[in-house]
User: What shape does this take?
Amino acid sequence: MDLTKEKELFAAGFRLVAGIDEVGRGPLAGPVVAACVVCTPDFEIKGDLCLLKDSKKLTVKRREALYEVIMKSSLKVGIGICDHKTIDRINILQASFLAMKKALGALRQKPEFILLDGRLPIPNTSYQQEAIINGDNLIYTIAAASVVAKVTRDRIMQEAHQRYPVYGFDQHKGYGTRLHLERLRQYGPCAIHRQSFKPVRELRQK
Assistant: This one.
């Protein structure tokens, strides 16, 4: 993976180009987390940064290592988080967009152009942007954002496991695995479960 798309935008006159990705739309518990990674024309891919790819294709150990490298590099990073209560209140799609806006708001320097993973652009924003299907597997800054968002959310769910150990959040990170569903049926929802999501909602109704 290289900076082909980012370099096209630099050649068009943009100086700050950002990649955005979110993690956590599907889980039954915990937040949705977005990350925004900004690069400039003088950024070069060196060392461990050459190993970057879509976070889903990396081992936990490699993701953690790349996260540290990204955070210490010249790339600028913003992180946005929307908790389970916000997800239940405004729905997961809108919470994902809100997390992206929070990630942008966390940056000291605002990007001039945004590349984001998926089909839909961020609504109600003045940023120039382009949504790219499979962007986390094609665009370097989106892949970097994917790693930052994934590691950030996984760490949040590790902390949740310390508070609610019976659910196994350290293993499935809130996704609807067989183990998670079994523990949900056994113990019922906890404070960080998404009440609006079908398996949790059905359990509460019973």
User: Anything to note?
Assistant: The chain has one domain: 4-165.
